[in-house]
Specification:
By secondary structure, the first copy, chain A, is α/β, with parallel strands linked by helices. Chain A is built from ten helices and ten strands. Helices cover about 35% and strands about 20% of the residues of chain A.
């Protein structure tokens, strides 16, 4: 067989599941959307979709978190403690691997989106990338050498505690940390602080200064990991908000203070860019996860 | 050939070079120490040491930073801009690879120490680990799947800007960031704040609270990367300071606020531990780098 393999990709989200049969963004054979209800009902419906498809060589699953991605753990591929009714402890990855007897890749939806952006999106051709989604929550996925950066678990860098802008003592909305990155700059944080949804907040509203400062601190941290050759930002708060990118870039550059002198980081306009795949990053990321699981299986 | 290969390891430090001919900590055939002077003089002296050794299959170099570890870059294996006279732009890795025509691994001294601690030290047997050295500077090395976590460059997470402890507005000593982690908790920071060297500062001195808070913020960040199964801490400020570990662990746990609920992280006493290899982590890390370079060459 020549060309990339055909993969069944599943993006398991909190309200819907995107199923895609594809080799890549230019070779999509089918797409099906299913509402997320109970685990059994939802996963059975996904299995029925895959039963109707032919010729896929592997499965990739991009799941809402938290999930166990630790292959050394008994709960690998399961959803961990989540407020979502019925989903705590749900087995995802092993269920599909058993049911279809195929190599099955599994990771968070954010990590999957990072993989897709690095392969086909705003970081196409870059083996090392960070992806940040700013929406209901703030998620970070990192890719190094074309693979997810992980170990014990997946990244949760949206919960870093940033240094505060001078004089800003707003307490934030994160139930765990108050004023962590997510607690200060997510969609719900912006609404809580201003009474207005992010998409309706005027560009000149001073609350954006705090958001830009906070996200700049996150980018400062990501640059200091040494991993990304580019940082791709998406999600509801970033999308369609052209004024925000220059402010976030400036906040990062100001915070780094010239410390990382590499040209890639110094040119903030090309270092921090909008996502290229939009809502397709998740399901396409699931395709990358399936492709990598297949390659790992073949290499064994 | 059976058993691990014999490697020439070179830890290139700011004041001295540790050369080691070894397969591992229990199979050291020779160790030689050379003062660090000019690049040409120093590296020629190291070459002369290696000329006198027989049977090594690869070379590993653990260098002071900043260095380029980007194989896609023309300056791979070179020292980048450094205040150290004569060393900016010095070619290290390619010089040794050419001279000895052997696979040559190259990374920072901190990353090398992380590799050694993960293989033979306080994280022996763990494929995913973070190593933090707190001394003249604060350095972080991360290992995932037994390999350095990197991409564009090596980690510089000692320069994160931590959220400050309530009421603490000390400006810190980092020339780039003032109150970054290194600017607040390194040896020079402690001396600048208290007038006393860290090793002479009484455990009940209130300055330790700020140091513990700051290092707790760094550990919070490292845990949120998702990578480490354990965090190993060494360096002059941590070593021989038994009161500091419990305080740093408590600061991390307080800051995470229960967010990472995995048992590995929740048990802070086993999650954050003292380094196991002491001053030998650097040269032994160079041996790991050489071993990995040899394996990559053999796999080609």
């Amino acid at each position: 067989m020549s060309g990339p393999p055909l993969i069944a990709g599943i993006e398991l989200g909190g309200t819907k599941v995107n199923c895609i049969l594809a080799c890549g963004p230019d070779a999509v054979q089918d797409e099906v959307r299913i509402p997320t209800t109970s685990p059994d009902e939802t996963l059975a419906a996904v299995e029925a979709v895959l039963d109707g498809w032919n010729g896929f060589a592997a499965i990739g699953i991009a799941s809402f978190g938290p999930v166990s991605i630790d292959r050394a753990s008994a709960d690998y591929g399961h959803v961990l403690a989540t407020p979502k009714p019925g989903w705590t402890g749900a087995d995802i990855a092993r269920r599909f691997a058993r049911r279809f007897d195929l190599p099955t890749g599994f990771h968070t939806d954010v990590t999957a989106a990072a993989l897709a952006e690095a392969k086909w999106g705003a970081g196409a051709g870059l083996a090392d990338l960070a992806y940040v989604t700013v929406g209901t929550g703030i998620g970070v996925g990192m890719v190094a050498g074309g693979r997810p950066v992980d170990g014990l678990t997946h990244a949760e860098l949206g919960h870093l505690r940033p240094v505060r802008a001078s004089g800003d003592e707003w307490v934030g909305v994160c139930p765990f940390h108050g004023a962590c990155i997510e607690g200060l700059a997510s969609g719900p944080a912006i609404r809580a602080r201003t009474g207005t949804a992010a998409e309706a907040l005027a560009p000149e509203d001073p609350a954006w200064d705090g958001v830009a400062h906070t996200l700049g601190q996150l980018l400062h941290a990501l640059a200091l990991t040494g991993v990304p050759r580019r940082i791709v930002m998406g999600g509801g708060v970033m999308t369609g908000m052209p004024h925000l990118f220059p402010r976030v870039r400036a906040a990062m550059t100001r915070s780094l203070g010239g410390y990382v002198s590499l040209a890639e980081v110094a040119d903030a306009d090309t270092y921090v860019v909008p996502a290229g795949l939009g809502g397709r990053a998740g399901p396409l990321g699931a395709v990358v996860l399936g492709t990598q699981a297949l390659a790992a299986f073949t290499d064994r």
